[in-house]
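Budget justification note: compute hours in this period were largely spent on complex prediction jobs such as the one shown. Inputs:
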Amino acid sequence: MPAALVFEHISKSFGSARALADVSFAVEPGEIVGLVGPNGAGKTTAMQIALGFLLASSGSGSLMGRRFGDAEARRSLGFVPDAPVFFAGNAFDALRFAAQLNDVTPTREAMEQVLTRVGLTEWKRDVRRFSRGMQQRLALAQALVHSPRVLILDEPASALDPLGVFDVRTLLKELRAEGAAILLSSHQLSEVALVSDRVAFLNEGALVRYGRLDELLGSADEVEVALSNFVPDAGFLTRWGEANTSGVWRVRSGESRDFLEDAWARGAELISVTPVRGDLTALFLEWTGKSAKGDEAAPR
Amino acid sequence: MKSLRIAWQLLWANRWLWLLLVLWPWGMAAILLVGGLHPAPEDVEAALEQQSIYGLALVAFAGGALLGNEQRSRRIVLVLSRAVSRRQYLGALWLAAFLPLVLYVLDLALTGPLLGPPPFVLWQTLGALLLLSLTTASLAVMASLTLPGVIAGVVSLVVLSVPLLLPPGWQIAQTRLLQILLSGPATEHVRLVFGAGCLETLVLSGAIFEAAVRIFERRDLRLKSE
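Corresponding output:
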């Protein structure tokens, strides 16, 4: 099945400022791709190019097989902006307007269903007086009311309470199961990690990492090694550092063999070697070259 | 149809302003007629011409401001993230600038006879206003692609007035229509003036709108980042 959303060597500059540089990735039907990166990394620019709001300086892209910017292609698209805005009217007016722009005239029942699905219970009030969380739910309903095959979501849960975040997570998984291709941009890395199949990491306009989440997390693997009958000498400590308070060393997977040989040569007995999975936040910090304290990452 | 839907939303968002506009000719008529005053025909004619200029200015400033407002408010995102082309969107802006003028002209047509101007003065003035506002709407929408709202409005009015500068042998129907608004009705070749005026306006406003679409399709939206 062809990819639903394709970025091919897309670059974008604003004057002399480079916003995106040779970015290529794709979102397949039935998968969620998390688009992550620090502020100013180019996430919004990438999404706006896919939506046709911005024109790529070079490269090309397609949405459901049609070039970015093609209005017909956007009939298959649902978009949730980071800060939704609405015209005057109640939730039904907002849904009807959004659907009609996609050449769909929804029934009252269909609108009630989609509002219920996103957990919006207030239907009659002017939507401009909704709380930010309610507006975000309504924007999600607007994105879903015409049953799109591609979703571009820019921080879809940033204004939601934990229950709302859980609802959105569940909804995204359901939509994926229904075959939707979803591009999800969020700073809530734990949420991205929970739902994404693949992650595209942008930094300073460049695609720094792109791949399956489990592979990317695996790439940061470390192992925890527990030893017994072992008092490390100065040479060992210089090379491998001190054990933690439980007497366990944490070393990179690629260096574990050297570590074990070094320890065995000094008479240590091995108790256990336990793989330590990376997490997306740690990877984020690593890819941006920062440590958890915000300093430049120290070489290991 | 989509353009009309979007235009309706834009107009509804500013409905109080448009309501005021619709009531304006009635208010003016009431002021002129209050206490059984019967203004002189030349005063009525001058008032009508003045109100027509206001109408053109309204189209120019509304048309010049809409795109900027929608980009600033980011409501443009709500529309253009759907199956709406840039052409349809500009069409909506054009309609949102022009349609209130139709109401305004209708109002003037209803209130005008109460003040008693000669019918040919009323119909020529309103006809010229209606035709010139088509061109003004296109000019204002085009100017708004590159200029801020008020400046776009001013520039579109200035460009609209350019035919007045043409030497007599080179004058076009737009020149005559402008002259009707500024210095009174035509007394000869009226059918020719309005026939040519209709044709010329359709071609001119269509060409300007088409150029605006071509430019808009090749431009990035200017969205304020959150």
